[in-house]
Design brief:
This protein is mainly β. It contains no helices and eleven strands.
């Protein structure tokens, strides 16, 4: 059984960088042909796909966030990480990591494994 667990700060100040890590157990992030994604849901908004890293280490980012987003991985720890630069209060929400067979998917049913989500609040 694959399990994903997000970790990171719950509170970030505006203009700072948010860094979140997803730790995967029960399966390797290098296994073909899985894509490891970051999504978020802000208050009153739908699920937003942010970016992904695939089994080979290639990365994909939402065009609306590409200039502020960086995704990387540590295969020795079976983890992948999201960095979101220059955060604003509009970046407040619940952040999820999830596995799928593609990148860019926006329906919950497109993902077969999810982390429980972590609340991130951007405030001074």
């Amino acid at each position: 059984q694959v399990q994903l667990q997000e970790s990171g700060p719950g509170l970030v100040k505006p203009s700072q960088t948010l860094s979140l890590t997803c730790t995967v157990s029960g399966g390797s992030i290098t296994t073909k042909y899985h894509y490891w994604n970051w999504l978020r849901q802000s208050p009153g908004k739908g699920l937003e796909w942010m970016g992904a890293i695939d089994y080979s280490g290639s990365t994909y980012s939402s065009p609306s966030l590409k200039s502020r987003t960086s995704i990387s991985r540590d295969t020795s720890k079976n983890q992948f990480t999201l960095q979101l630069n220059t955060v604003t209060p509009e970046d407040t929400g619940v952040y999820y990591c999830a596995r799928a067979g593609l990148w860019g998917l926006t329906r919950r049913s497109d993902y077969d494994y999810w982390g429980q989500g972590t609340q991130v609040t951007v405030a001074s």
